[in-house]
Amino acid sequence: GPFAVAMIYLLTTIVISVGVTILDLRKRFADLSIAPIRPGPAPVARGAHALRWYGTFFTVTNLMQNAPILMIAALGLSGPLLVTFTVQRTMVNFARTIAASISNAAGAELSVLAMQGNKAAFASGITLLARLNSTLAALAISGLLVFSKQLITLWTGKPELGSTAVLSLLLIPAAIVAPALALQQAAVLSDKLKLQSQAALINVIVGVGGGAVAGMYFGIVGIAFALAVGESIAIGGFAARHAAREFGISYRTVFLQTTMFFMPALAWSLVTAQLASSLPFGSSSVGDIARMAVWALIAGSPLLWLSISATMRKSIAERIRRKF
Known about the structure:
The protein is an all-alpha fold. 85% of the residues lie in helices and 0% in strands. The protein has 11 helices and no strands. The protein has helices at 2-28, 41-74, 80-95, 97-115, 119-156, 164-177, 181-189, 194-247, 251-277, 285-307, 310-323. Helix 4 crosses helix 7 (181-189). The mean pLDDT is 86.
């Protein structure tokens, strides 16, 4: 029942977020000793001072996951419209998970460089990750735009669900925010959370507040538009710019360099997706999966190879040569 499902989620979260983290730390830092201690008054005071921003950031972030659905229901836009928005938003969020996970992992390493004062290595890492995340965004955008109907059919069995306008609006922040993901995570882990929390609040005000108004006049399309504008301004603009300033780097330079790579990557992904969608593999689910697999291989392999650094390419090529 629901209780069993909730327990599975809880245990999975504990194992992944605590257990795997501890094992990884022990493997990397053999002399590290991890044990619970009772903090003194000074750490408690510092923690209480920082708690308001940490609490604001994580509360608002979780709120943004659920508020749009509740807002749609409150506006009376339930039924197929609600299902369409929920399914497409879930698809987009899932497609963005890979870039977010990479940024979470890399953000920990980058925050160490920032605290050590190694600005050159930090800026280089941010630029590399911005390019990689934008490549993943280009693949996600093109794949969902071309194969969304097949994915919805595979998932729900109802090909009539889906809206190109809503999907396009939900995908806009994926492109704009991608270069800022690692920078935002580095800011969070470097205790530079005040501006990130303020950005999250801006996202709620513009996205949810604007969505409530736009939804009354334009329905789900209006809500999707407000959410896209809110996230693009708050996370892709305000948070990224101020985080870069705190770290002493130019986000404009990072964004422009990333955009120069993103645009041709998106064009290549769209062209190859269109070509792959017309492959004669039949109209079954197996055929759809085969077409998407061929596209992912043809489009993703060269883009991901080009998005990483020359040093990483050389290292990978060397490992492949040793294997074969």
